[in-house]
Structure to design on (89 residues):
């Protein structure tokens, strides 16, 4: 979790710690999503270490069902489509 009051320096330090752990664990690739500033820095740090970084793409479908009492139930479904690699250049 990235604290909302974290500075840029703190986010950078966290990304470096996470990248180091991933490399030490032998990661060749990583699924990287989440808080945007950390995602950005972590992808950069991992790519500098030769680790490929990916995100998942999905499609969302929504349906609404009106109940007899007049309330509406909303259902959302996410369908995985593919992995997309973050560009290194």
């Amino acid at each position: 979790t990235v604290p909302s009051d974290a500075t840029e320096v703190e986010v950078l330090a966290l990304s470096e710690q996470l990248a180091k752990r991933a490399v030490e664990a032998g990661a060749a690739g990583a699924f990287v999503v989440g808080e945007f500033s950390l995602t950005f820095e972590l992808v950069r740090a991992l790519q500098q270490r030769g680790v490929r970084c990916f995100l998942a793409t999905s499609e969302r479908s929504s349906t609404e069902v009106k109940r007899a009492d007049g309330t509406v139930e909303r259902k959302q479904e996410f369908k995985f489509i593919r992995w997309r690699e973050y560009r290194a250049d």
About this structure: The first helix runs from residue 8 to 24.
